[in-house]
Design goal:
By secondary structure, this protein is α/β, with parallel strands linked by helices. The chain has two domains: 2-45 and 97-205, Ribosomal Protein L4, Chain: A (3-Layer(aba) Sandwich), CATH 3.40.1370.10; 50-90, no CATH class. Helix content is 34%, strand content 14%. It has a six-stranded mixed sheet. Helix 5 (160-166) links the parallel strand 4 (150-153) and strand 5 (172-175). Helix 2 (29-43) packs across helix 3 and helix 4 (135-145) packs across helix 5. The longest helix is centred in the middle third of the chain and has 17 residues, at 102-118. The chain is elongated.
């Protein structure tokens, strides 16, 4: 599939041929869902924790005699049944990550790229570079291009001036090609990829 290449000043910079096996697939929600779940589970800290019966600070002395009270038999004030006692089978620190085959993750990225291309929300930029690291310059260009919630994917390295200028603009995020991922692509309305980014992604996903 062919797509127009634009400049930051909204001028045309020719055309580019995009690989159909990366940008021309029929997006499948089930594949995207599985990859996003894998990403979010991997990013989850899993630091939630509570005090169990063995962690609560209380005396271990038997609270009252075993027989003759007419009540239930108890030995420890740490029991979950008592106020301030330990929590029974509560959450403990753990990893929420689960395995997902590398080929499936790559397929998910292809479907995410294809979904943006199919909905017309894929833009190919000549180069993501500006002369000065001025937020005002980039904000003006983004407004003229109609970018509101956009992810910019560059080549192996991101232009330092462009990166600095984008930091203070809400709705504009930039990643190198190696950082391209399904969750960030789907979260933004518009996906902008530089020519260098297209080459890097095609080389990565071939």
């Amino acid at each position: 599939m062919k797509l127009d290449v634009i400049k930051l000043d909204a001028g045309k910079a020719g055309e580019i041929e995009l690989a159909d096996d990366i940008f021309g697939l029929e997006p499948r929600a089930d594949i995207l869902h599985r990859v996003v779940r894998w990403q979010r589970a991997k990013a989850q800290q899993g630091t939630h924790s509570v005090l169990g019966k063995s962690d609560v600070s209380y005396s271990t002395k038997k609270i009252y005699k075993q027989k003759g009270t007419g009540g239930a038999r108890h030995g420890s004030r740490k029991a979950p049944i008592f106020r301030h006692g330990g929590v029974y089978k509560g959450p403990t620190p753990r990893s929420h990550a689960h395995d997902l085959p590398k080929k499936f993750r790559a397929l998910g990225l292809k479907h995410a790229l294809s979904s943006k291309a199919k909905t017309g929300n894929l833009v190919v930029l000549d180069v993501a570079e500006i002369a000065e690291a001025k937020t005002k310059l980039l904000a003006k260009a983004a407004k003229e291009l109609g970018w509101k919630k956009v992810l910019v994917i560059d080549g192996a390295e991101v232009n330092e001036n462009f990166l600095k200028a984008s930091r203070n603009i809400e709705g504009i995020d930039i990643l190198p090609s190696i950082g391209a991922n399904v969750y960030d692509i789907l979260k933004r309305e518009t996906l902008v990829i530089t020519k260098a980014g297209v080459e890097a992604l095609e080389a990565r996903l071939k």
